[in-house]
Amino acid sequence: MALRRLFGRASALPIITAVLLCVFLIAQFRSQYAGFHLGPAPQLPPPRVEIVVASQTSEDTSWVDRHLSDWARSIYVTDDPSAKLTVPKNKGREAMVYLTWVWVFRVTEVLADAGIATSSIATTAW
Q: What is d(CA 11, CA 51) in angstroms, rounded to the nearest whole number?
């Protein structure tokens, strides 16, 4: 009851508890590893970026090759079941494309470090 009066609301108590726990853990970590240096940070390769485009057969997607030639690309054609990349069912506009991309690449474990999802028409959605 005294804590409730001190902090005003009972909902603030879990937040304050979490902050105090973090402060305690940071203090323990610093005291345990004081003077320990890992050395210079390793050079990491640049992140792999992939663009995911939701399109239909009537739309021009050549802008992806022209402007983003160094990015990996997944261009889904939603209204052509025989396309290289397509969706199980043409439903949900762009959402089905993005969910299919995440599902397929999550299973194969080659999901890009960053994914940019867009429609093939930059100014409007279909």
A: 42
What pTM was estimated for this model as a whole? 0.58
The mean pLDDT values, 10 residues at a time, for the chain of 126 residues are: 55 72 73 64 79 87 85 87 88 82 73 74 56
Q: How far, in Å, are 3, 9, 86 from residue 77 at the CA level?
A: 59, 53, 5
